[in-house]
Amino acid sequence: MTTTTQQACKSLRRGFTLIEVVLTLLISTMLLTTVMSIFTMMARANADLGARYEDLGELARAHSAIRRAMQSLVSGQPISERLDEETEDPALVDPNADNRPSQSTIRERLGVEEEDLPAYHFILEASTKAAQLGVVEDDIAPRRLEVVMERQPTPIAPDNNGKPVRGAFEPVYISGSGAYTHWALDYVPIEPAGEPIRLIEDAALIDWSVLGHADESAEGERWFGLYEAQEAKNYPMSIRLNVITWDNTQVDWMFEPGVTVGDE
Description:
Blueprint: H1 2-12, H2 18-70, E1 73-75, H3 79-83, H4 90-93, H5 103-110, E2 122-126, H6 128-133, E3 143-149, E4 165-175, E5 182-191, E6 197-213, E7 221-224, E8 227-229, E9 238-245, E10 250-255, E11 259-261
């Protein structure tokens, strides 16, 4: 009787079978994998939110600087007034004269070559630096915007003692090539000269365009990727900047320029 009872107790105290152990390990592994996946997703989401927050802060500062620049643009005098105000031809002096010829005709009459003229006050052009690197084709190279302003758009740029300043918003190559090129956007003080100031750190796209006046062969207005203006009446009606960062933050800004006529 006693022997039978001891055998029954030993039978009840036997260990887990191999199948039970394997099932337990499998369930535990699945639970741990699920928990780790959740933590990984949360960490990744937190990192994405942090990067997005940094992008938005950087873009807000860039927007503020560009907005200040666009609201304080300075145009040049009409070409006839800058080059020969004492000419006896009233059509050359009066910019509003009905019979006033084109600027190319004015230059020809005054005997002034194109290279002798002051630089345009508003220039939207392809970045030669970007094209020279060979990482993108000329037709898709980011454009640079050079302008004359009443004052610097950032407080750390050099002052010009109350006189107008010239500067450029210049795309800067970082790395990559083609569609995977990384760009930055700098503000470069030209006159007075100063060190470049980084506005946007890492972008996949930096695209300037302007809503300008059509040439004489067309009517109305249209968007341009390349544009030059000297007189206030020829300045664009709107300036657009589209930026996409590599953290997938996208902004599409429109600026209405404020233009005053400067003395030159």
